[in-house]
UniProtKB/TrEMBL annotation:
Domain of life assignment: Bacteria
PANTHER family assigned to the protein according to its UniProt record, in alphabetical order: HTH-TYPE TRANSCRIPTIONAL REGULATOR, HTH-TYPE TRANSCRIPTIONAL REGULATOR TRPI
Taxonomic placement: Bacteria, Pseudomonadati, Pseudomonadota, Betaproteobacteria, Burkholderiales
UniProt KW keywords: DNA-binding, Transcription, Transcription regulation
Record region (Disordered): 299-321
Coiled-coil positions: none
Protein name, UniProt field: Glycine cleavage system transcriptional activator
């Protein structure tokens, strides 16, 4: 006879997906992939001999019978959690994870997202160092290194997780102060350079068919994050990486003065020592990075929402005159 107790992992996946109304959110809560949740739900449906969700174009909806089933088992999971908390199992020792990333990436992309990872894994202690040294030059035994790529290094497993392009950005105040409608207008402005990336502006100007353009002035800073901050503060125009300035464009701290062109850029990749490839914690952090990278707005539209609204409002005012 078939036992009446269903597979518990499958039941847990169903409970999370049904309660949250999303396989994706259930996967995040359970620290697994969306495909794993879908597979577990299908396994439970096979065990029960009945469908639990109606698969629609971009969503899933509980069947009436599955809704009643969820109402029955949901309190059982809550009670199990409360009972376990009362039992007072000793906490496991904190797990440590050492990371090395470039300063600009850490400051503008990774650190702002770490609160999410910490909420999911409060027992993990993270140590982060920043540097731009090549992977093979690092002497410390880091669990995970973030660098551009894809590149191949002996003894490391590489996986890309975030893509971007590079486009000119400036503050709204700077554009208001001086004409900046077409790429040729850059000759009236200060171009912001970064010591470690000296080819950004020359390459962009060449792609814009303006290789001989001479700006009013130039300023060079030694870190990319300083260059971006100078652009935010209205000092000049920078070539910004879309992945690292997306939030500034969304908030209106930065704008795209013109639609293009766009410079292709290397992807951000994780490099994990082969000897630690099977470590569950490293695998969990790398999978989380890949999910965050997939969610990030790596491709930024030609205008920020605020700039688009402003342009639309201006057109409406002009047409009403």
């Amino acid at each position: 006879m078939k036992p009446m107790l269903p597979p518990l992992n499958a039941l847990r996946a169903f409970e999370a997906a049904g309660r949250l109304g999303s396989f994706k959110e259930a996967a995040t809560e359970l620290h697994v992939t969306q495909g794993a949740v879908s597979q577990q739900v299908r396994a439970l449906e096979a065990w029960l001999g009945a469908p639990l969700f109606e698969r629609q174009h971009r969503s899933v909806v509980l069947t009436a019978a599955a809704r009643a089933y969820l109402d029955d088992i949901g309190p059982l999971f809550a009670h199990l959690g409360q009972s376990t908390a009362r039992y007072g199992l000793p906490r496991a020792a904190p797990r440590a994870l050492s990371i090395n990333a470039s300063a600009t990436f850490a400051l503008r992309w990774l650190v702002p997202r770490l609160a999410v990872f910490r909420a999911l894994h409060p027992d993990v202690e993270i140590t982060m160092d920043t540097s731009n040294e090549p992977v093979e030059s690092l002497r410390e035994g880091y669990d995970l290194i973030v660098r551009g790529g894809p590149d191949t290094f002996y003894g490391y497993v590489m996986r890309p997780f975030l893509t971007e392009e590079r486009v000119p950005v400036c503050s709204p105040a700077l554009k208001r102060r001086g004409r900046l409608r077409e790429p040729v207008d850059l000759e009236r402005h200060t171009l912001l350079h970064t010591t470690s990336l000296p080819r950004l502006w020359p390459d962009w100007l060449a792609k814009a068919n303006l290789p001989a353009l001479r700006p009013a002035s130039s300023m060079t800073l030694d870190h990319f994050y300083l260059t971006i901050q100078a652009a935010i503060d209205g000092v000049g125009v920078a070539v910004g990486p879309t992945a690292l300035v997306a939030s500034d464009l969304e908030s209106g701290r930065l704008i795209l003065p013109f639609a293009g062109p766009r410079l292709p850029s290397r992807s951000y990749c994780t490099y994990v020592p082969e000897t630690r490839e099977g470590d569950p914690l490293i695998s969990t952090f790398r999978a989380w990075l890949e999910q965050e990278g997939a969610n990030a707005r790596a491709y930024v539209p030609s205008r920020s929402k605020r700039a688009t609204r402003k342009s639309t409002n201006s057109r409406i005012r002009d047409e009403s005159r």
